[in-house]
Amino acid sequence: MAIEVRVPTILRSYTDGQRAVEAAGDTIAELLTDLDAKFPGLRARLITDDGALHRFVNVYVNDEDVRFLGALDAKLGDGDTVTILPAVAGGAVAGGAVAGGAAALS
Amino acid sequence: MARFDSLLDACGGTPLVGLPRLSPSSDVRLWAKLEDRNPTGSVKDRPAVWMIRAAEAAGQIRPGDTILEPTSGNTGIALAMVAKLRGYRLVCVMPENVSAERIQLLRMYGAEIIFSPAAGGSNVAVAMARQIATEHPDWVMLNQYANEGNARAHYETTGPELLRDLPTITHFVAGLGTTGTLMGVGRFLREKVEGIEIVAAEPRYGELVYGLRNIDEGYVPELYDATVLTRRFSVGTRDAVLRTRQLVEVEGLFVGFSTGAVLHAALAVAHEAAKAGKRADVAFVVADGGWKYLSTGAYGGTLSDAEGALDGQLWA
To answer: Does residue A8 sit within a domain?
Structure first.
């Protein structure tokens, strides 16, 4: 079962720079385990030591937030798209990326 | 009664308008709450009036004081109008990548603007405002992201208006930014309407906006309480533009792009209800009109052109 996973810029160091990767699993938890086998270290950036989704990470299945679909138990189907994004306020991560970073990105 | 003693008193009491052409059926209806009909043209007039009145009542500010606020636009414009009428000086901290109209409007109302870098968006503005606040201890930062008055405005006004005008409401859909609208209206409707669905539509911007910083430095507004929501959608630029155009084409409503994102989520839940054979009255918030975004050029041309024009901009 193929699921497309969209990876945010800040986590692409784990995916050899790829914006989207493929993984498998019947739930988000299984998908993340499969992802971690392919891209070691990625799961630890998304899941806390308590085994919950990191507070500042949002994960969406077909554009819907998984926290309202059973969180890590959210079900996945063939052809679904999973999007990982940093938590934002009115549209952005906190902390202050510098303007120079913007030029490098665009 | 359509007569008011001042512009401040004309805030709220906005129309709720049916959208018969976009509604899936006569049993599943869409309703638009026209918040662009507020004094400065956006939903933010409600929290602006409420937060300033609450701060005055609490003795935190009095005319002549300086108010400092991180804002990507509408809240700043609303605060600028209230500040002018109540005698305050307003300093706004906003990302440099917001539309030209917002900047012109703020300056026209007499607000001073400090720009924050485009990359990182609103959160950088918030961080910068906090820094400036420490340098000017006599300035007052209302902080819409944490100010209870923001959600309270909607609990006391928007929520009751919706229930009065649409007692059969089953779904409430709004944009998620400071979370004030969803928290306030959501709490009110949850108390009054059994089984109500509170649906958030969160704008998903171009990659630039999300910056390059570590995930540990993310930010969730202090006002946000996930238990108030029942669902939360992330809506990309393309879908937001598509729905914005559809709304003006099919129903004659000219709205800003954040409302396009909200409509996208509203249509999703409406069509789900229709498919399941359930009755539904889905009310959603039109946060502002399209006027302030014309300079983006995203109302014309192909969808891809529009997506490109908005890439890297805070369109909601």
So the answer is: yes
ipTM entry: 0.86
Q: What is the DSSP string of chain A?
A: --EEEE--GGGTTTTTT-SEEEE--SBHHHHHHHHHHHSTTHHHHHB-TTSSBPTTEEEEETTEEGGGTTGGG-B--TT-EEEEEE--SSS--SS---HHHHHHH-
With respect to residue A105, please indicate whether it lies within any of the assigned structural domains.
no
Q: Is the full-model pTM beyond 0.95?
A: no
Residue A104 lies in a domain: no
Rounded CA-CA distance B79/A66 in Å is: 35
* Residue of B197, B198, B202 to mutate when probing chain A, most A C-beta within 10 A: B202
Residue A74 lies in a domain: yes
- Kindly report the CATH number assigned to the domain that includes residue A48: 3.10.20.30
Is B209 part of the contact surface with chain A (CB cutoff 8 Å)? Answer: yes
- Locate the chain A residue with the closest alpha carbon to B180: A90
Query: Which tokens in the block code for residue B278?
Result: 């359930």
Tell me whether residues B210 and A86 touch, CB distance under 8 A.
yes
Q: A18 CB near a chain B CB, below 8 Å?
A: no
- Average pLDDT of each block of 10 consecutive residues along chain B (316 residues)? 92 98 98 98 97 96 95 90 97 87 91 88 83 94 94 98 98 96 98 98 80 70 95 95 96 97 98 98 97 89 86 74
Tell me which residues of B are annotated as active site: 44
- Helices B257-275 and B237-251 cross at an angle (nearest 10°) of 80
Nearest chain A residue (CA) to B124: A96
Counted domains in chain A? 1
Asked whether the beta carbons of B208 and A106 are under 8 A apart, the reply is yes
Residues in chain B closer than 8 A to A85 (CB atoms): 204, 210, 234
CA distance A2 to chain B (A): 22
